[in-house]
Amino acid sequence: MIGYLSDNLLIPILDFFYGLVPSYGLAIVALTIVIRLALFPLSAGSIRSARRMRIAQPVMQKRQADIKSRYANNPQKQQEELGKLMGEFGSPLAGCLPLLVQMPILFALFATLRGSPFADVPYLVNLKILPPEQVATIEPKPFTSPRHSIFITDKDHFPVIASLPGGTKIAAGDSVDIKLETLTGEKYSNLISRFDNGTKFSPTWKVTKGSDIASVSSDGKVTARYPGDATVEGRIPGLAAKSGFLFIKALGQVGFYVDGSINWDIAILVAGFGLTLVISQALSGQGMPPNPQQATAQKITPIMITGMFLFFPLPAGVLLYMVIANIFQAFQTFLLSKEALPDNLQKILNDQLNQQNKEKLTPSPIVDSDRLPFEPKSNK
Questions:
Q1: Domain ranges within the chain, ordered by starting residue
Q2: What is the pLDDT of residues 149-163, one digit of tens each?
Q3: Is pTM beyond 0.70 here?
Q4: Is the model's pLDDT at 380 over the cut of 50?
Q5: How many CB atoms lie within 10 A of CB 378?
């Protein structure tokens, strides 16, 4: 499904925008905005639900505890009352459904931006090399990799897969050819030969694991030497992997720190992601009473997620999408925070804010630990 959405929805949108403005950076920005607009109703449902649950949660927890205590010996009545409570305030899980519905599109978008034309495309084949007598007893299971749309020109791209008809379990001493081909069965080498610049997109092959166990030739022929596990990678260059955009040196560039130098464009994108995430979270709490439990999580979460991209690097094109998506999310959160609440939730919110104001105006009692050493103790 991910490949289908990428090939039949997202890549055609990219083609359209690239046809209007021949810049893959602008195409990513336009694609991000289109997808976020399409998902606006679903993400709005999640934002609304989170906003309402933040207000209702303290009241719901208190009433749930009361219901469970009052009807501890009557499970049927307890479930009935809890159902009424959910009907009054809504289920805390209601905001998860819109997120689940949009996940396939987001995964497809992520896969699209990580592949051609924005980055080099790897095809990984994990091989298990066995003694010949053992392979003879195993029924072959054909191997097919996930498909990737490979761009040969700005307008020509084709879904390509890697396959091993005999499977990934091969006998020591044997040789097998890893086939790169289109979904119609055409050899990839024949496909690129039809284009003047086709040789630029010839795959490079290497053994990334178990180089003492197996070897691979420049045309993808694997020779198994000894029993063990090996991984072979075929990599096809991305058409726009080295294309720049604004301050980004290359959309396919990966890594914050490479070859002893800092990639400042990646650093800026990662920092931009963290900043927009913090802004979005701050806007989600606009006009709400402080929640000490959530406050800690809101401080830690952006740091953890942002730091993750330093240790699990992503291509610059993907980071660009994530920054634009966060900006859109922050704008959407700001708009929805202005919406009127249902009467019952507005009353709860008003009570919470009034209580908060009273606590601010009430002076804290002075205790001895607050006094300086030279101050006399109170006799009261």
A1: 2-104, 121-236, 257-336
A2: 888 887 788 888 898
A3: no
A4: no
A5: 9
